[in-house]
Design a protein that fits this description.
- The protein has 419 residues and is of the alpha/beta class.
- It has 12 helices and 24 strands.
- The chain is 29% helix and 26% strand.
- A hairpin with an 8-residue loop joins β8 and β9.
- α3 packs parallel to α5 and α7 (232-245) packs parallel to α9 (303-311).
- The longest helix has 14 residues, at 232-245.
Length: 419
C-alpha cells in the first residue's frame, strides 16, 4: 500500500488508539488467571491479535463483544507447545518467560522483521532459573524447556525491559520464591505498567529501587475487569501534528498513565508548544516552537515523533538515547536520518545523541522500512511540507494503529491511499 500525503491543516476532536503495550499485558495476565476476565476498549492492531492468538494457544477461551473481550483462562503448563508472536517483540519476550514454566519443549516463533531482531540478554537468566536452551542462536524461532524453579537471578536490562516484564509475570507462578536482580535498567516506566497490571490481577511483587524484585512463588492470578488505556505512543503523533500544523482536541489519554511515552508532554512543553489539559482532554495548537533537549532513553518509541517536532523548531534540538533505536522494527536512527533527510531535515548522529536542525521541509518519496512508527512520522512531517509526500509499504501501521490514516483524515488531513 502506498500513501500520498499532502500539506494539511488539522482541526477537531480525535481519539487516541488503545495502547497495544497495555493491552498485550492485560491479555497475558488474563490468560494466566483461572476464571473469566473482561477487557474493555480492546486493541485491534496486528500485535494485539497476535497476543490473543497466543492466549488461545495457551488454552484460554477468547470471545468478542461490542465494547470488550472476555478471556476465560485455564493455564496448564505441560506438554510441547509452539507460540506464534507475529511481529510483536513484546509478546515474544513475555512468552519466552511464561513459556519457561512449561515442563516440556516450547518454541517461540515470529514473522516479518521479528526473527531478525535480537531478543536481548535472555540466555543466562533462563539458565540460572533452571531452563534449558535448545536453540543455538538467540533469535526466533527459539526453542527451550523448563520448568523454571525460582531462586536468585541476575538480568541485564540495558537492551530491553520487556523480558524483565515477562519474568515479573511468570515467576509468581513458579514453585519457589524468586529474587530478581536487574542491572542497567532502561525503560523503567514499562516495568511500572507491568507491575500495575499484575496488581490488578492479584499478584504482589515488592522491589528496592527497581534493582531487586522480591517475587513470592505459588501465587495465583485472579480474574479482573479492566479497561485498556489510550496509547501515548500513537497519541504522541497526534500531539505533534497539532503542535506543528493544527488545532486538535485529543481524547482517550490518561495524563496519570504509567506509560513511558506520556513524557511527550514534557518535550512539547520544552519546545514551547501551546498545550492545555481540560478535564480528560488535551488541546494542542500550532505556534512558534523553539529548539529543545530531551532524553528518550526510557521512552525510545518517542524518537520518531520527537524528530518531527524538532524539525519544526527554531534552532538545533538534541535528543539523547539514540542507541536504543537499533533493535526496533527498523534501525530507527538510520531510518530517520535517511528519510527525514530526503525532506530537507538536517540530522546528525554522534554516539548516543541525535541533533536535528529546524527548517522548511519538502515532500519526497519515502520508504517506511516496514516500520509502523516511520510511516506515522513521515505522514506528520508531510502535513507541513511543501509538495506531496509518498510513503511506501504504509500498511505496516496495522502493527499498532490500523485506523491511523482514517483518524488523520477525519481531522482534515489530505491523504490518498493506493492499494
Amino acid at each position: 500500500m502506498r500513501a500520498t500525503v499532502f500539506p494539511s491543516q488539522l482541526s477537531g476532536t480525535v481519539m487516541a488508539p488503545p495502547s497495544k503495550s497495555h493491552f498485550i499485558r492485560l491479555v497475558a495476565a488474563a490468560m494466566l488467571a483461572g476464571g473469566e476476565s473482561k477487557i474493555y476498549h480492546p486493541s485491534s492492531c496486528d500485535d494485539a491479535r497476535a497476543m490473543l492468538g497466543i492466549a488461545g494457544e495457551m488454552g484460554a477461551k477468547v470471545t468478542f463483544h461490542e465494547d470488550h473481550i472476555r478471556i476465560l483462562g485455564n493455564p496448564v503448563f505441560s506438554g510441547k507447545r509452539t507460540f506464534h508472536c507475529g511481529e510483536s517483540g513484546l509478546a515474544a519476550r513475555l512468552m519466552i518467560a511464561i513459556g519457561s514454566l512449561f515442563d516440556d519443549e516450547v518454541t517461540i516463533t515470529g514473522e516479518g522483521t521479528l526473527p531478525k531482531r535480537k531478543l536481548g540478554n535472555i540466555a543466562s537468566p533462563l539458565q540460572q532459573l533452571g531452563a534449558r536452551l535448545l536453540s543455538d542462536a538467540l533469535t526466533l524461532p527459539l526453542r527451550f524447556s523448563g520448568p523454571v524453579r525460582g531462586g536468585t537471578v541476575v538480568v541485564d536490562g540495558s537492551e530491553s525491559s520487556q523480558f524483565v516484564s515477562g519474568l515479573l509475570m511468570a515467576m509468581p507462578l513458579a514453585n519457589e520464591d524468586t529474587v530478581l536482580v536487574v542491572e542497567n535498567l532502561k525503560s523503567r516506566p514499562y516495568l511500572d505498567l507491568t507491575l500495575e497490571v499484575l496488581n490488578s490481577f492479584g499478584i504482589t511483587i515488592h522491589h528496592e529501587e527497581y534493582r531487586r524484585f522480591f517475587i513470592r512463588g505459588n501465587q495465583r492470578f485472579q480474574p479482573a475487569d479492566i479497561r485498556t488505556e489510550g496509547d501515548w505512543s500513537g497519541g504522541a503523533f497526534l500531539l505533534v501534528a497539532g503542535a506543528i500544523n493544527g488545532n486538535l482536541r485529543i481524547t482517550g489519554l490518561d495524563v496519570k498513565s504509567r506509560q513511558a511515552d506520556r513524557a511527550i508532554l514534557d518535550a512539547l512543553k520544552s519546545a514551547g508548544a501551546d498545550v492545555a489539559i481540560e478535564n480528560q482532554d488535551i488541546i494542542v495548537k500550532s505556534g512558534k516552537l523553539k529548539a529543545f533537549g530531551f532524553d528518550a532513553t526510557h521512552s525510545p518509541d518517542l524518537f520518531p515523533p520527537l524528530a518531527v517536532l524538532a524539525a519544526h523548531c527554531e534552532g538545533i534540538s538534541v535528543l539523547r538515547g539514540a542507541d536504543r533505536l537499533i533493535n526496533k522494527e527498523s534501525n530507527r536512527a538510520g531510518a530517520l536520518l535517511e528519510e527525514l533527510g530526503k525532506m530537507n531535515v538536517n540530522i546528525n548522529i554522534q554516539q548516543n545523541e541525535m541533533t536535528i536542525a529546524g527548517g522548511k521541509s519538502r515532500g519526497n518519496h519515502l520508504s517506511s522500512y516496514s516500520d509502523h512508527r516511520m510511516v506515522m512520522a513521515a505522514a506528520v512531517m508531510a502535513f507541513n511540507a511543501s509538495g506531496e509526500t509518498t510513503i511506501g509499504q504504509a500498511e505496516c501501521v496495522n502493527k499498532s494503529w490500523p485506523e491511523f490514516f482514517k483518524t488523520m483524515s477525519a481531522a482534515g488531513a489530505d491523504i490518498s491511499i493506493n492499494i
